[in-house]
Design a protein that fits this description.
With about 190 residues, the protein is mostly helical. It has a domain at about 5-75: Arc Repressor Mutant, subunit A (Orthogonal Bundle), CATH 1.10.10. Helices cover about 40% and strands about 5% of the residues. It contains 7 helices and 2 strands. It has a two-stranded antiparallel ribbon. Strand 1 and strand 2 form a beta hairpin. The longest helix is centred in the N-terminal third of the chain and has 15 residues, at about 5-20. It starts with 5 loop residues before the first helix and ends in a 20-residue tail after the last helix. About 20% of the residues are buried.
Length: about 190
């Protein structure tokens, strides 16, 4: 099953909280207490989000963390990149060999041994190309989902007017007549939730 890590899950909770309260600084302890999260993991995730320029820290008695960008300018794919260094469906997707490797050098050793390969099947893998395509489709969706979608959903939940995220994605990503196979050819824009 494809799962986001706890770090990414915490990151989206923290960012959504900050998006719900723009310009109001919150300490890691305040947010962790509000959502009953691990204080140490909350602090570590906020530090990573700060390093990734998604939040900023304000010093002082009334200091804390605030968003460093507007919620509509923060993509789910960026959060995953900042907190996890990227996302690969399978281990070999991060691996390059031959001319596609950095600098045009092969990552296999000089004898051509598969010792450095992520999997012994890598050079002849029958599913690698299709897995790369599936991963690119998932990444495309992640590139379209903004923090604003999470913030808006939280506001709708509070107001009792919540629309299910699947309904929003279906309406926004797949407008009338567009087939899932055509998704890659559409212009890449973040969702306007």
């Amino acid at each position: 099953m494809l799962n986001l890590t706890r770090k990414v899950d915490y990151g989206m909770v923290l960012l959504t909280h900050l998006g719900l309260h723009p310009k109001v600084p919150f300490s890691a302890r305040q947010i962790a207490g509000h959502y009953r999260l691990s204080p140490s993991l909350t602090a570590n995730v906020l530090k990573s989000l700060q390093k990734g320029n998604l939040v900023k820290s304000l010093r002082g008695v009334r200091g804390g963390y605030v968003l460093n960008r507007n919620p509509e300018d923060i993509l789910l794919s960026q959060v995953i990149e900042v907190l996890e260094g990227g996302w690969n469906m399978v281990e070999c997707q991060a691996f390059k060999i031959g001319p596609e490797a950095a600098g045009g050098r092969s990552t296999a050793n000089s004898a051509g041994s598969p010792a450095d390969l992520p999997c012994p099947v890598f050079p002849v893998c029958p599913s690698r190309t299709y897995m790369d395509w599936v991963a690119s489709q998932i990444k495309q969706v992640l590139d379209h989902v903004t923090l604003q979608c999470f913030v808006q959903e939280a506001l709708e939940r509070q107001a009792g007017t919540r629309q299910l995220p699947e309904q929003k994605l279906a309406e926004i990503i797949l407008p009338a007549g567009l087939k899932a196979t055509e998704l890659k050819t559409t212009e890449s824009k973040p969702l306007s939730c």
